[in-house]
Design brief:
With 177 residues, the chain is mainly alpha-helical. It has one domain (21-176). The chain is built from seven helices and no strands. The N and C termini lie far apart (58 Å).
Length: 177
C-alpha cells in the first residue's frame, strides 16, 4: 500500500471513529439510562433499606425502569419523530426508504418502554415486562453482532442491549426459581 493510500485509510478510520456532538449525546444518554442511573438507584435503595435479600428485586425494578422503560420510551419517540437518526447514525443507511420500518421499530420501543415504566409502580408487571424486553433486546444484540456493527453508535446499541439482556435474564432466573 502506498503512503497516500495509507494516509487516506488512516483518515477514513479516524473520521469514522470520531463522534459528532449528536453521537456524544447518544453515547452519554444511552450509558446513563442503561448503566449509571439503574445502578445509582439500586445502591440508593440498598443503602436506605439495607436488605441484600431484595437485591435482585431492586435490579429488576430499576433496570426495567431506566434501561428498558425510559431508554426504550425515548428511543421510540425519537424513531417515530426522526427515523433518519437511527438510519444514518446507527445503521449507516443514507436512504430514507426504510424510514417507515424504523417508525414501526419506534412503536415497538415505545410500547416496551411504557411497560418498563409502569413496572416500577406495578410489581406484577415486572416479570412479563422483563421477559418481553429480554427477548427483544437479546435478539437486537444478536442481530447487531451478526451483521458486524457499521458505526460506533451501533456498537453502543449492541453492548447496551446485551447488558440489559443479561441483567434481565438474571432477574428472571432469580424471580422464577
Amino acid at each position: 500500500m502506498s503512503t497516500n493510500e495509507e494516509n487516506r485509510t488512516s483518515a477514513t478510520v479516524l473520521s469514522n471513529a470520531s463522534m459528532s456532538s449528536g453521537n456524544h449525546f447518544y453515547l452519554i444518554s444511552t450509558l446513563l439510562l442503561t448503566i449509571i442511573l439503574p445502578v445509582a438507584w439500586i445502591i440508593g435503595d440498598l443503602l436506605s433499606v439495607r436488605n441484600l435479600a431484595a437485591s435482585w428485586s431492586l435490579v429488576g425494578r430499576w433496570f426495567l425502569f431506566w434501561g428498558v422503560g425510559i431508554r426504550l420510551f425515548t428511543a421510540g419517540l425519537s424513531q417515530i419523530a426522526r427515523p433518519s437518526f437511527t438510519l444514518r447514525s446507527i445503521f449507516q443507511i443514507k436512504s430514507l426508504e426504510s424510514a417507515p420500518i424504523v417508525r414501526e421499530l419506534g412503536f415497538s420501543n415505545l410500547g416496551i418502554g411504557i411497560a418498563g415504566i409502569i413496572s416500577v409502580l406495578l410489581v406484577p408487571w415486572r416479570v412479563p415486562a422483563a421477559f418481553i424486553a429480554c427477548v427483544f433486546l437479546g435478539a437486537a444484540a444478536l442481530q447487531h453482532a451478526l451483521k458486524k456493527p457499521a458505526s460506533g453508535n451501533e456498537w453502543v446499541a449492541l453492548v447496551t442491549d446485551a447488558i440489559i439482556f443479561f441483567v434481565l435474564a438474571g432477574f428472571l432466573t432469580f424471580s422464577l426459581v
